[in-house]
Design brief:
globular; mainly alpha; 6 strands; 47% helix
C-alpha cells in the first residue's frame, strides 16, 4: 500500500496557507520522490457561525423516511457548530488553530468525501472530548489536545471524527428517526414547515451532545485508524490516546462526558487492534513528536 508521508512545514508562508511536502512511502526503498502540494487551510470563520442562535429542544419527530443533500447536511452542521461555539467558546490562538487545521487537512486529503468544506476548531474547555457535526464541522477540546503527545495521536483523533462525517453517522440517525418526509430535501421541507429545520438541528445537537451509537463509535475507531495510516501517520496514534485516557481515574470530572458518549476503552482498543492486524498496519508511519510539541507548547 502506498501512503503519503507528512514532512516539514516550510517557514515564511502567509497566514491561512501552508505548503505540505508529500513523499510516497515504498517499503525497502530509501529514496523518496517528493512532490509539492499547496493547500489553503479552512480555519473557523466566526462570520460563518451564528453563535447567538442556539436551537431549543422538544420538537416532535415527523413521520416517514427521507434523506439529506450535502447542502442540507452542511447547513445543519453549521447550526450544531454554532451551538457548541456558544456553549464552550472557540480558542483564538492562531498558531494552534492553524496547526490543527493542517493536520485535519492532511487526514481529509485521504478520505472519501474530500469535496466537503471541512472546518476544524478547538473548543475552549478543559473537558476531554472531540466532536463531529454533519457537513464537516469538527472540534477537539483544549482538554483533549493537552493529553496528546504527538501529531499521529492528533491525526488519529481527527481521523476518527472525519470518519463520522464520511460515513454520515448523524445523517443516518436522522433518517432512522424519520425526521423528514419521503423524497423531501431540507429546502422543500422547510418551505412547507418553518419548524422543520429546527427539528433537524435540534436532533443533531442532542445526538452530538449525548453520543452516537456504540457501533458508530467503533466504526469510527476502525475507519479512523486506517485513514490516519493512509495519511502517513503511525496507525497506533488513536490507540495510544485512548489507552492513556483509560489509565486516568474513571471518576475524573473532565472525562465525564467522554465516558458517557463513548464505548468502554477495552472495546475500543480491541476493535483497533483487530483493525491493525487485519489491515497489516505497523508503526512505520510518522509520529512527528517534535513538531507537535514545538507547535503546541504553552508560552
Amino acid at each position: 500500500m502506498t501512503r503519503a508521508t507528512p514532512n516539514v512545514i516550510p517557514a515564511g508562508r502567509k497566514p491561512g496557507s501552508i505548503m505540505l511536502f508529500w513523499a510516497p512511502a515504498f517499503a525497502g526503498v530509501t529514496a523518496m520522490i517528493l512532490c509539492l502540494l499547496a493547500q489553503s487551510l479552512i480555519a473557523f470563520d466566526f462570520n460563518d457561525l451564528d453563535v447567538g442562535k442556539v436551537v431549543s429542544g422538544g420538537a416532535k419527530l415527523a413521520k416517514a423516511a427521507g434523506g439529506l443533500s450535502d447542502r442540507d447536511e452542511i447547513k445543519i452542521g453549521r447550526e450544531v457548530a454554532a451551538n457548541l461555539a456558544a456553549r464552550y467558546g472557540l480558542l483564538e490562538d492562531e498558531r494552534k488553530v492553524r496547526y490543527v487545521n493542517l493536520v485535519g487537512r492532511v487526514v481529509v486529503s485521504h478520505c472519501d468525501r474530500k469535496k466537503l468544506p471541512y472546518h476544524f476548531g478547538i473548543l475552549r474547555t478543559s473537558e476531554i472530548n472531540a466532536l463531529a457535526a454533519p457537513g464537516g464541522y469538527i472540534f477537539i477540546t483544549q482538554g483533549l489536545l493537552d493529553t496528546l503527545k504527538d501529531e499521529s495521536e492528533l491525526g488519529g483523533v481527527l481521523a476518527h471524527e472525519v470518519t463520522h462525517v464520511v460515513r454520515q453517522h448523524i445523517v443516518k440517525a436522522i433518517r432512522q428517526a424519520n425526521l423528514i418526509g419521503a423524497g423531501q430535501d431540507l429546502a422543500s421541507a422547510a418551505g412547507k414547515d418553518v419548524s422543520q429545520f429546527s427539528q433537524l438541528s435540534d436532533f443533531s445537537i442532542n445526538l452530538v451532545n449525548n453520543g452516537l451509537s456504540r457501533n458508530d463509535e467503533l466504526d469510527a475507531d476502525k475507519g479512523g485508524t486506517v485513514l490516519a495510516a493512509n495519511a502517513g501517520y503511525d496507525p497506533a496514534g488513536l490507540r495510544r490516546s485512548i489507552e492513556r485516557l483509560a489509565a486516568r481515574q474513571k471518576a475524573d470530572v473532565l472525562l465525564g462526558r467522554f465516558n458517557k458518549t463513548h464505548p468502554p476503552a477495552s472495546d475500543r482498543l480491541k476493535a483497533i487492534d483487530n483493525t491493525l492486524r487485519q489491515n497489516h498496519l505497523t508503526d512505520q508511519g510518522q509520529r512527528l513528536t517534535d513538531r507537535f510539541q514545538q507547535t503546541l507548547s504553552r508560552r
